[in-house]
Amino acid sequence: GENVEQHPSTLSVQEGDSAVIKCTYSDSASNYFPWYKQELGKGPQLIIDIRSNVGEKKDQRIAVTLNKTAKHFSLHITETQPEDSAVYFCAASEGDYKLSFGAGTTVTVRA
Amino acid sequence: EAGVAQSPRYKIIEKRQSVAFWCNPISGHATLYWYQQILGQGPKLLIQFQNNGVVDDSQLPKDRFSAERLKGVDSTLKIQPAKLEDSAVYLCASSSRLQGPDQYFGPGTRLTVL
Which of A78, A88, A92, B63 is buried most deeply by CB count within 10 Å? Predict the structure, then answer.
């Protein structure tokens, strides 16, 4: 099955700086890569996703990149704000949309 | 549009007892998922339904876990008997394949087994 590794496990950034989270996956058949944000006591919230036919996607302060050859993808958050503090999960899925999640990155934005 | 609803939000039981969780997906979403999220880890898929049929239950510990989705809408997940290692958050998610693969999660049920 699919194996997703996520780094770093914790990330502390100064407000206004950028945050980058990286994930690698094992199954070359995977073609859908969503990112979720989970706040304390809540379920994961889909924030952005990228498909295998796209190399980069941007939505305001959030961007994702995908390198299918190297089997890795990344989340970039620019101009971080305190409300960006949360746990972020990457995931990968094959055509049946069964998601395999990374272990998560706890992001702390320092004011 | 209402999101995925789950109840109860919290449950504390003793080992060997039974427990059940309920999920109501987003209206019109044919696909429903149950995930287990152990503290400090990412969600792990337990079972996936398409309407009222099981698509994948390969990760469901069938000796103690069961799930059903009788009318293709609401779903229940049951654990009987519970073990200490079942302490986790149980998340329900739904998706509409007609609209793409995006899965939307409910708030989860936090289970503590003593």
Answer: A92
- Alpha-carbon torsion angle B74, B80, B84, B90, nearest 10: -10
Classified as helix, coil or strand, B60 is coil
pLDDT per residue over B46-104, tens digit each?
A: 999 998 899 999 999 999 999 999 888 999 999 999 999 999 999 999 998 777 788 99
- Give residue A23's identity as a one-letter amino acid code: C
Provide CB contacts within 8 A for A2, sequence distance 6+: A25, A26, A27, A30, A92, A93, A94, A100
Residues of chain B found within 8 Å of residue A101, distances taken between Cβ atoms: 42-44
Contacts of B42 in chain A (CB under 8 A): 4, 6, 89, 91, 101-104
Rounded CA separation A51/A43 (Å): 23
pLDDT at A96: 66
In this predicted structure, what is the pLDDT of residue A95?
Answer: 65
DSSP state of B51: T
SS3 category, B59: coil
Q: Is B32:B92 a contact under the CB 8 Å cutoff?
A: yes
Tell me which residue in B43, B48, B97 faces A44 most closely, judged by beta carbons: B43
Average pLDDT over residues B3-19: 97
